[in-house]
Design brief:
Low-confidence stretches: 272-295, 539-543, 586-610, 735-745
Structural class: alpha+beta
Number of helices: 24
Strand content: 15-25%
Shape: elongated
Distance between the termini: 143 Å
Largest sheet: 7 strands, antiparallel
Mean pLDDT: 77
Length: 745
C-alpha cells in the first residue's frame, strides 16, 4: 500500500515569485546606476546627452511612460523642462514650464520632502493642483518626483510619470529615483566644471598671447630674484635670448642704488600685512585686497645693461603675484624702453637750463647796470630842468616847448628803466626787502595823495576806506607804496569817467588792499596775459594809452616776494578790481632786530617770489622716496621742513616744533595709523589751531569725508602732484579766505 502526501504550496510559490521579481528589479536598478556611472558623457560635460541617457535609463528601469528633468529659472519663480523622454514615441522634447504662483503646494512639497511619491496623483494634496492643467490632460495617474540638489541648494526635479492604473511606489523605487536625481546633479556639475576649465584654458591662451606679443617687456621672477620666464620684447630690450636669461638673477641686468632694498621689503611686508588682515575670511580676494594690489606696486626709472655693454633707460613696474594659498610666489616686472624719451628730456632740460641761464644773465646784467643807465638820464633831466628855470638865460616860446619835451621824454624813459631794473632785480633774486611795522593809514594816504592830481585832471572821484582795527602791517614800505601806486595809476589811466577807490581790509591770515574802478574792464579770456612783462592786452591800447606793460608784472612779483599775491576780478565795459594780499608775519618776530642778527634770517626774508617766512611743516611719512620729494620741494621754495618716518615721539615733535602745517600719511605701518595719530592730536588743547592735511592712495570720497569728519583739514591723493601741493600751501599757509570768489593769478 502506497501512501501519498500532498501539500498546498501555491502561496509559497507566489511569495518566492514576488521575491524573485523584487530581486530582479533591484538588480536592474543597480545595473542601470552602474551603467550611468561609467558613461563618458559626464566626463565630457555633455549635459544634453547625459540628460537623454539618464531619462531613457530611468524610464526603462522603472517602466514608466515619461521621465522629465525640470530646473528652476534664475528668479526661482517657475520650473522649466530641459528634457522629457516619452517611451511610446521614443522622442525627447523640452520647453514646458510650471509657475510657482499657480502651483504653490507642489512647489512647497519640492522644498520640504526628500521625494514626492504620489500613488494617486489626482487626489494627493501635494500634486492635485496639477490635475486639471497637466495630469488629466496627459492621462497621468501616479507621480514619483525626486528633487535635484546642487551645493546644498534645490535647483530642480526629476519627474517619473506613470500612465494607466494607479501605481504604488516602493521604497526601492523612491531610492532609485533619488539616485537618478543625483546623476542629474553630477551632469550639471560636469558641465560647469568643463565650462570653467575651458574658460581657464581660453584665459591662459589669451594671457600667453598678450605676454608674447606685448610691446612692453615682461619678466616673471621668483622670490630668489631668478628669472623664470620672459617675453620677446624683454629679450630685445636686454639683447639676450630667452634661454640665456632663464635662471639668471634679474638684479644682474638693472642698476641698483641705496633705498631699493627697502622698497622691496616694504612691498613684501605690505603683502604679508594684508594677508594677515584677510586670512580670517579665506583667500577669496575682497575689495580691500583688490585696492591693496593696485597700490602696492613699485614703479621706478632704471638704467639696464644691454648685452652689447651699453646702458638703456627703462621704466620698471614691479608687483607681487601670490600663490594659491595667498603667499607671495613671483614678482611680475613690466619693463619699457624709455631711452629715446629720456634723451629728449635731457635735451629739453639742457635747453631750458640754457634759456634760464640766459634770462638770469640778462636780469643780472640789467640789475648791475642800474647806475650806468640812470646816470645819463639824470643829467638829461637835470639839465633840461635848469633850462626850464632859465638859470643860464631866458628861452623863447619854442625853446621852452623843446625843453619841456626833452624833460617829459626823459621822465618817461626813466620810469621805463626803473620798472625794467626793478623787475630784473626781483627775477635775479637780488631784491632785498626791508621789513618793518607800517601804519596802513599812512600807506593809503600817501598813495591817494600822490595820484589825486591825475584823478582830478580826468574828473574822477577818488576815495579811500580803511577797515582795520589794528592799523599796522609788516612789509617793505617803498615796495608796498610802489604796488599801490601801480594799481591806482592803472585804474586812473583806464577809467574815462566815474570813480576809483582804495579799500584796506583785515582777512583771517593777513591784510588786503583792493583798488576798484569803473573803467573799460578786461575780458576774462585775457587774464592769462595780464601779468606778463611788456604785454598790453590789445594793440589798440598801445595807441590810445601810454605804458610798457611792466607795472602789473612787477606788482605781482613784489607781492609774492612778501609771501602774498595779486588777484583780479573784471567785467568788460564795467570796470576792474585788483587786490593785493599781504600775510601777517609771526608776532614773535622783531623785524628790525632780525635784520641785524645775521644774513641767514635776511635770506629767508628776501627770498624769491611766493617764498614763505619761517613757516614750519611737519612731514609724517614712512615711504622714503615720497618723503624726500616732498621735503626737497618744500625746502626749495622756502619752508622749514621736519620729516619723521615713524610715530615715535610724535606728540613731542608737535609740541617742540609748533608747526604751521602737518602733512600726515594715512597708512603708516606700525603701532598707529595716520588716522590714529589724528585722533591723538584731537585730545591736545591746541588742536583747533593745527592745520592737518592727510595723504593717502584711496580715491574714494567716503575716505576723504571720514578724514574731514575726524578733524583733518584736507586730503591729498597720492601720487602727489605739485599743483595739488601748491593749492594746499596756498589754502592753509598763505591767504586762505582771500581767494574765495576771486580769480587767482
Amino acid at each position: 500500500m502506497q501512501v501519498v502526501s500532498a501539500r498546498h504550496i501555491t502561496q509559497r510559490n507566489q511569495s518566492q515569485n514576488a521575491l524573485q521579481i523584487k530581486e530582479n528589479r533591484r538588480r536592474k536598478q543597480s545595473q542601470t546606476l552602474v551603467q550611468l556611472a561609467r558613461s563618458k558623457r559626464f566626463q565630457q560635460g555633455d549635459l544634453n546627452g547625459a540628460l537623454k541617457e539618464i531619462t531613457e535609463a530611468a524610464a526603462r528601469t522603472l517602466l514608466v511612460r515619461r521621465v522629465s528633468v525640470w530646473l528652476y529659472n534664475q528668479e526661482r519663480s517657475k520650473i522649466e523642462c530641459i528634457d522629457l523622454y516619452d517611451v511610446s514615441t521614443k522622442t525627447h522634447s523640452f520647453g514646458n514650464s510650471l509657475s510657482g504662483k499657480n502651483y504653490p503646494a507642489y512647489f512647497q512639497a519640492l522644498e520640504e520632502e526628500r521625494t514626492i511619491a504620489a500613488d494617486d496623483a489626482i487626489k494627493d494634496s501635494r500634486t492635485q493642483e496639477l490635475s486639471e492643467s497637466y495630469l488629466s490632460v496627459l492621462g497621468i495617474t501616479s507621480l514619483l518626483d525626486a528633487p535635484i540638489w546642487l551645493e546644498g541648494r534645490l535647483v530642480g526635479v526629476v519627474c517619473h510619470e506613470h500612465i494607466g492604473e494607479e501605481r504604488q511606489w516602493t521604497l526601492e523605487e523612491e531610492t532609485f529615483a533619488g539616485s537618478i536625481a543625483d546623476f542629474v546633479t553630477l551632469a550639471i556639475e560636469a558641465k560647469e566644471r568643463n565650462f570653467a576649465q575651458e574658460a581657464l584654458r581660453h584665459s591662459e591662451a589669451q594671457f600667453r598671447a598678450i605676454f608674447e606679443h606685448s610691446s612692453i617687456g615682461i619678466g616673471l621672477i621668483d622670490m630668489k630674484a631668478q628669472i623664470v620666464d620672459t617675453n620677446l620684447a624683454l629679450c630685445e630690450i636686454l639683447g639676450y635670448s630667452r634661454e640665456e636669461l632663464y635662471g639668471k638673477h634679474f638684479t644682474d641686468y638693472i642698476s641698483t642704488q641705496r633705498g631699493d632694498l627697502k622698497l622691496y621689503k616694504q612691498l613684501m611686508s605690505g603683502m604679508n600685512t594684508n594677508l594677515k588682515r584677510t586670512s580670517r575670511v579665506g583667500f577669496q580676494p575682497s575689495k580691500h585686497q583688490e585696492q591693496f594690489v593696485e597700490r602696492h606696486r613699485i614703479e621706478m626709472e632704471k638704467r639696464c645693461l644691454h648685452q652689447n655693454g651699453s646702458l638703456i633707460w627703462t621704466h620698471i613696474s614691479v608687483s607681487v603675484i601670490p600663490s594659491s594659498n595667498g603667499e607671495p610666489e613671483f614678482f611680475l616686472a613690466m619693463i619699457e624702453d624709455i631711452t629715446e624719451r629720456k634723451e629728449t628730456e635731457l635735451k629739453l632740460r639742457a635747453s631750458q637750463e640754457a634759456a634760464e641761464a640766459a634770462n638770469r644773465a640778462k636780469s643780472e646784467f640789467l640789475a648791475t647796470m642800474s647806475h650806468e643807465l640812470r646816470t645819463p638820464l639824470n643829467a638829461i633831466m637835470g639839465l633840461s630842468q635848469l633850462l626850464q628855470e632859465e638859470i643860464v638865460g631866458s628861452l623863447n616860446e619854442k625853446q621852452n616847448e623843446y625843453v619841456s619835451c626833452i624833460y617829459s621824454s626823459g621822465e618817461h624813459l626813466l620810469a621805463l628803466i626803473n620798472d625794467i631794473l626793478d623787475l630784473s632785480k626781483v627775477e635775479a633774486e637780488k631784491e632785498e626787502l626791508s621789513f618793518s611795522p607800517l601804519p596802513v593809514s599812512d600807506l593809503c594816504n600817501y598813495a591817494i595823495w600822490t595820484v589825486r592830481d591825475r584823478a582830478a585832471e580826468k574828473g574822477l572821484q577818488l576815495t579811500c576806506q580803511i577797515d582795520i582795527e589794528e592799523d599796522i602791517c609788516i612789509g617793505d614800505e617803498r615796495r608796498i607804496k610802489q604796488m599801490l601806486l601801480n594799481l591806482l595809476t592803472n585804474a586812473i589811466k583806464f577809467t574815462p569817467a566815474g570813480q576809483v577807490s582804495l579799500v584796506a581790509k583785515k582777512v583771517p591770515q593777513g591784510i588786503t588792499f583792493t583798488v576798484s574802478d569803473t573803467g573799460i574792464g578786461i575780458d576774462s579770456n585775457q587774464f592769462e596775459f595780464l601779468f606778463e612783462p611788456f604785454k598790453q592786452l590789445d594793440s589798440r591800447l598801445n595807441r590810445q594809452y601810454e605804458g610798457t606793460g611792466l607795472g602789473l608784472a612787477l606788482t605781482r612779483k613784489l607781492a609774492r616776494l612778501h609771501g602774498g599775491d595779486v588777484t583780479v576780478i573784471s567785467t568788460l565795459g564795467k570796470g576792474s578790481q585788483f587786490t593785493i594780499f599781504l600775510p601777517i608775519l609771526p608776532n614773535s618776530v622783531n623785524m628790525q632786530t632780525e635784520q641785524n642778527e645775521g644774513s641767514q634770517q635776511d635770506t629767508a626774508l628776501t627770498s624769491s617770489p611766493a617764498t614763505p617766512h619761517n613757516e614750519i611743516i611737519l612731514l609724517v611719512e614712512e615711504e622714503e622716496n615720497t618723503a624726500i620729494v616732498l621735503q626737497d620741494y618744500l625746502q626749495t621754495i622756502g619752508y622749514k621742513v621736519k620729516w619723521i618716518d615713524s610715530v615715535n615721539n610724535f606728540l613731542e615733535q608737535v609740541r617742540n616744533l609748533q608747526p604751521n602745517l602737518i602733512l600726515l600719511d594715512v597708512q603708516l605701518v606700525g603701532d598707529a595709523s595716520g588716522c590714529g595719530l589724528l585722533n591723538v592730536l584731537k585730545q591736545e588743547p591746541y588742536f583747533p589751531d593745527l592745520q592737518v592735511v592727510m595723504m593717502g592712495y584711496s580715491e574714494l570720497p567716503e575716505e576723504k569725508l571720514s578724514i574731514l569728519q575726524a578733524g583733518g583739514n584736507d586730503y591729498l591723493l597720492k601720487p602727489i602732484r605739485v599743483v595739488q601741493l601748491e593749492s594746499i600751501l596756498t589754502r592753509y599757509l598763505n591767504y586762505s579766505d582771500f581767494q574765495i570768489n576771486e580769480k587767482p593769478i
